[in-house]
Amino acid sequence: xxxxxxxxxxxxxxxxxxxxxxxxxxxxxxxxxxxxxxxxxxxxxxxxxxxxxxxxxxxxxxxxxxxxxxxxxxxxxxxxxxxxxxxxxxxxxxxxxxxxxxxxxxxxxxxxxxxxxxxxxxxxxxxxxxxxxxxxxxxxxxxxxxxxxxxxxxxxxxxxxxxxxxxxxxxxxxxxxxxxxxxxxxxxxxxxxxxxxxxxxxxxxxxxxxxxxxxxxxxxxxxxxxxxxxxxxxxxxxxxxxxxxxxxxxxxxxxxxxxxxxxxxxxxxxxxxxxxxxxxxxxxxxxxxxxxxxxxxxxxx
Length: 301
Description:
4 strands, globular, 13 helices, two-stranded parallel ribbon, mainly alpha
């Protein structure tokens, strides 16, 4: 059964009342591991140019779409809604397998990912926000990844205590490289180019939530920040573009919620549908949803 949540999550204090915690010290192997991430993303952007030489057949385009879809779903459904916000519960193997798939996107491991996203929510659009939209759309889209903000202030304790998730995090680049090799084994340079193209598009799809969803869209909910609901980004990110709703109810398994004619309206949210499928086969439980009363009370009007 989907659980209603009758009280809104307590708002975190603003940056004016929170002091930055002491910056975590990273070991040299972890630093090397983490900085491989931006190198892989830059490599995929450059590698995408290979497609102009090889061309892309229907099969290669199918591979591009499949890799985009499955990895985006792992980021949204596992990294974001399960590990970071605990919007539902799931057995450990779901977390592990989902995190391996998500890390193959070249967007780092679960510990790094959760650490940054928690900081984003804690200091949304404030100076301490690692990808604050106040610094401009280019900063929030990609420039922050090439700065000192790339290293999280502190890695989350819960995922650090899971030795499997910690291992996936430190070896996040292995699934990415393995997927590139698999692509080459399937179809040679053409499919390797398809892997590069899919990974590059996926990077920008996720980044649009940080950039476009804090600049363009609607604000049905009062959140105290610049988060927006953006339908185009929601389609590209399987539901993550309903960002204003997410900032109003970060713990909600469903982000596709808005207000219309003084009532609650549900919006397309493929990631939530995925969670419901997991629930139907016993792989998801304790699914959190705001009640209609909570949604109406959060109205920005």
